[in-house]
Design goal:
Layout lengths: L19 E5 L2 E5 L15 E7 L7 E7 L18 E4 L5 E5 L8 E5 L7 E5 L21 E5 L2 E6 L11 E7 L6 E10 L14 E10 L2 E8 L4 E7 L7 E8 L24 E5 L2 E9 L7 E8 L22 E2 L2 E4 L5 E3 L20 E3 L11 E5 L4 E9 L2 E10 L1 E8 L8 E5 L2 E10 L5 E13 L1 E10 L6
Parallel strand pairs: 20-25
Antiparallel strand pairs: 1-2, 2-3, 3-4, 5-6, 6-7, 7-8, 9-10, 10-11, 11-12, 13-14, 14-15, 15-16, 17-18, 18-19, 21-31, 22-25, 23-24, 24-31, 25-30, 26-29, 26-31, 27-28, 27-30
Length: 478
């Protein structure tokens, strides 16, 4: 069976949130911050890069560390973290990496001759008089840089605006000269913060953080995280520095607002912040975003979905899936790891993982791993207690007659197999107490066609789910 693209699109042991995807040459490159599994804060690791050939988005390659936090002159001891970056190609053909350290209000820049080589510190964004952007009287602190270069001009979008903070006006754009550092215009507001949004059209979806900018045809798409955090919204304009009009939500990492298969207000995944952007790959557009794992804010994984554009240039919201960059539904046969769950919930309809540093308690299922940060092992779902449901979308099912699951834990009950989160069970697979991964199976028939698969645990204790396998009637040695 041909290797398939999956969500998350990187290995389960890699934690790259805040993804900024670009096509350079014949490869897709993703730049982001770098969480640490079981970390105590955001973005504890150095920047790394992953890439894939444009013709095969299942074949991601680790490019290695591209920039270390200690390379910035302000951070020789590494006490500050590298927050979400962005990359652009200057008029000189070099690649420029823009980032902000976690305790300073300024934008740093590094440079490299290749997309995923070893970047070197280049300088700080500054005004013509040498004052650094973010340090002049009246400046707002810089955060989450997003960049777009056209000719000799680079547009730098930054901002962080919490609800009720009167000191932050919104997302701002600053125009830079061809040296990629010197301010020539701005900063000016392109999307308002919550206190200043009345009459703007952004009400209820005001700018919070994560500005990113793309251009499609003659239209600029400003992608950002709104004040409700779990959603990536967008606004459009014919100009890079003004007249942005709010358009809607592209994706929510708790699958809120989508009402095609559930009530729009029902969360289908535990969420918190979100950050990402869009990219065109061989004529198809994708949104890259991140989800939350391990019951905290600090172990985020990159995901992607294909998106469509209506004739008027607007983007309908997409649902979270397990397919990621795959060209269609996954094959309805073979074994799939449980960490591919795009829906994960229980009867306690919590939306958020909790404030930074807080751990979800054992009532809630979570995607996790056993090893340390960087260990190349397969993730799994822990804490599946009575009513916990893991959903996987979508599969091309044909002739499925048996389902196997791999489970461990102090549990006694059964997993029900459904094709809708609230639908009838097509069968039950009993499980029992075991402290090692144990396979259980049941003969059952999944209806043919494009199906979602939901596994709901009912019973005592807590089960961990490592994988499931689908078998068809003509397969042997099952």
């Amino acid at each position: 069976m041909k290797k398939q693209g999956l969500n998350p699109y990187l290995p389960s042991w890699e934690y790259i949130p805040d993804g900024e995807p670009y096509v350079f040459g014949d490869r897709v490159y993703v730049y982001g911050s770098h969480d640490r599994f079981n970390g105590h804060a955001y973005c504890l690791n150095d920047y790394v890069c992953w890439s894939a050939p444009v013709e095969d988005l299942a074949d991601w390659r680790y490019e290695g560390v591209i920039y270390k936090k200690t390379q910035d002159p302000l951070n020789p001891d590494g006490r500050m973290c590298l927050y979400a970056p962005d990359v652009t190609v200057g008029s000189d053909g070099r690649y420029y990496l823009y980032y902000v350290l976690d305790k300073v209000p300024i934008v740093s820049v590094a440079v490299c001759n290749t997309p995923a080589g070893r970047y070197e510190f280049y300088g700080y964004v500054k005004y013509a008089d040498g004052t650094r952007l973010g340090e002049r009287e009246g400046d707002e602190p810089q955060f989450d840089p997003g960049v777009l270069t056209e000719g000799d001009t680079t547009y730098l979008y930054t901002g962080f605006c919490a609800v009720g903070d009167l000191s932050r006006s919104g997302a701002r754009v600053t125009v830079l000269a061809s040296d990629m550092l010197t301010v020539t215009e701005g900063p000016t507001v392109v999307a308002p913060s919550e206190p200043y949004s009345q009459g703007s059209g952004f009400e209820g979806h005001e700018f919070f953080e994560a500005p990113s900018i793309r251009k499609k045809g003659d239209t600029y798409y400003f992608i950002y995280s709104s004040i409700v955090m779990h959603e990536l919204c967008y606004a459009t304009s014919k100009y890079p520095t003004k007249d942005f009009v709010y358009q809607g939500v592209i994706v929510s990492n708790s699958d809120l607002h989508i009402d095609s298969y559930k009530p729009a207000a029902k969360p289908m995944f535990y969420s918190s912040n979100n950050h990402g952007s869009i990219v065109e790959i061989r004529g198809e557009w994708h949104i890259f975003y991140h989800r939350h794992t391990n019951g905290t804010n600090f172990s985020r994984q990159g995901c992607s979905e294909r998106i469509e554009f209506r004739e008027d240039g607007t983007i309908p919201q997409v649902e979270m899936t397990s397919c990621g960059p795959n060209s269609g539904p996954l094959a309805g046969r073979g074994e799939y790891p449980a960490y591919l769950a795009c829906n994960l919930f229980c009867r306690d309809e919590a939306i958020y993982t909790g404030a930074p540093g807080e751990w979800m308690d054992s009532r809630f299922p979570k995607i996790t791993q056993d090893g340390r940060d960087g260990d190349e092992e397969i993730g799994y779902i822990a804490n599946m207690r009575d009513s916990a449901t893991a959903g996987f979308k979508y599969f091309h099912c044909e002739g499925i007659t048996k389902v196997k699951i791999k489970v461990r834990g102090y549990c006694r009950g059964a997993f029900e197999i459904k094709t809708a989160w609230d639908g009838p069970a097509y069968g039950r697979i009993p499980v029992d107490f075991t402290n090692i991964w144990t396979e259980y199976a049941a003969d059952l028939v999944i209806p043919d066609g494009i199906q979602a698969l939901y596994f709901t645990y009912t019973g005592e204790g807590g089960a961990s789910l490592a994988s499931f396998a689908l078998s068809v009637s003509w397969q042997l040695n099952d």
